[in-house]
Specification:
- The structure is a single chain.
- Helix 1 packs parallel to helix 2.
- The chain is 13% helix and 37% strand.
- Helix 1 links the parallel strand 1 and strand 2.
- The strands form 3 sheets. Strands 6-5-13-14-15-16-12 form a 7-stranded mixed sheet, with no helix packed on it. A 6-stranded mixed sheet has the order 8-2-1-11-10-9. The chain has a 3-stranded antiparallel sheet with strand order 3-7-4, with no helix packed on it.
- It is built from 3 helices and 16 strands.
- By secondary structure, the protein is mainly β.
Length: 230
C-alpha cells in the first residue's frame, strides 16, 4: 500500500509527488498517457515558481521572454521591457516529464499508460481502479486537470465552465526576436493575435519554443459546448 496515490502527471501532480516523496512519503503517480506526451499549451511559466523548489529548472526551459510588444494591424508598436524576471517558455512534454523525474529521484514511482477507471474509499484507505488492476493508498490526490474525472468521483460540485474552441499547429521555423511576446489586435476581427504567452479570452497565438514555432487560433464563446483541440 502506498502512502499517497497521485492521479495525473502534469505540473500539479509532479509537484505534489516531488514534495511528498522528498519528505519520505511513498508516492505512486498514475498517468493515462505515455510520458513524455505532447500537450497544446502557451507554455509561459512564471519564474516565481522556482522559490518552491530546490533544483534548477534550466534543463526544462526553452526560452525566456523579457519584452512585451503591442501592435495594431502590425503597426504603431508599443514596446516595454519587463521589470520582473523574464518569463520562462517551456514545452509541456519536456517540462512535465522533468518535474516527474525530479519526483522519481526522491523515490516516487511512476506508472504511465495507466488510466484510472474509478476510486473507492474503504474506511481507512483508498482503492484506485486502473486498467492494469487496483492499487491501494492511504491518501489520493486528484491532479488530472480541468477535464479529469477525479473531482466528480470525490464529490466536488461541478464548476460552471466557459468553453472555447481552438486550433493549433506546430512547425519548424527560424525564430527571430524570441525574447519578445508580441500581441497583435487588428489582423482579424474579434481575434487577438499574439506571439508567445497565451491569452485567457480571444486569441490567435504564436509562441516560440526553442527552434520551433507553434501557432493556434482560439475564440471564446459561451455557446460552444464541445470544443475540439488539435
Amino acid at each position: 500500500m502506498f502512502d499517497c496515490i497521485v492521479v495525473g502527471a502534469g505540473p500539479a501532480g509532479g509537484t505534489v509527488a516531488y514534495h511528498l516523496a522528498k519528505r519520505g512519503v511513498s508516492v505512486l503517480i498514475l498517468e493515462k498517457e505515455s510520458l513524455p506526451r505532447y500537450k497544446p499549451c502557451g507554455g509561459g511559466v512564471s519564474p516565481q515558481v522556482a522559490q518552491w523548489f530546490d533544483f534548477d529548472f534550466s534543463p526544462a526551459i526553452s526560452l525566456k521572454v523579457d519584452t512585451i510588444r503591442y501592435t495594431w494591424q502590425m503597426g504603431d508598436p508599443v514596446q516595454a521591457q519587463l521589470e520582473s524576471e523574464p518569463v520562462w517558455m517551456v514545452r509541456r512534454d519536456v517540462f512535465d516529464q522533468f518535474l516527474v523525474q525530479q519526483a522519481q529521484g526522491q523515490g516516487a514511482e511512476l506508472r504511465d499508460r495507466t488510466a484510472v477507471t474509478g476510486i473507492q474509499f474503504l474506511g481507512d484507505h483508498w482503492q484506485v481502479e486502473t486498467a492494469a488492476g487496483p492499487v491501494l493508498g492511504r491518501y489520493v490526490v486528484g491532479a488530472d486537470g480541468a477535464k479529469g474525472t477525479m473531482a466528480k468521483w470525490l464529490g466536488f460540485k461541478e464548476r460552471k465552465r466557459r468553453f472555447a474552441g481552438a486550433l493549433e499547429a506546430e512547425a519548424a521555423a527560424t525564430v527571430s526576436e524570441a525574447h519578445i511576446a508580441h500581441f497583435e489586435f487588428g489582423m482579424v476581427k474579434n481575434w487577438l493575435h499574439l506571439e508567445l504567452p497565451q491569452s485567457r479570452w480571444l486569441l490567435h497565438w504564436h509562441w516560440h519554443l526553442s527552434r520551433r514555432r507553434a501557432s493556434g487560433l482560439q475564440r471564446h464563446s459561451q455557446r460552444v459546448r464541445h470544443p475540439v483541440w488539435h
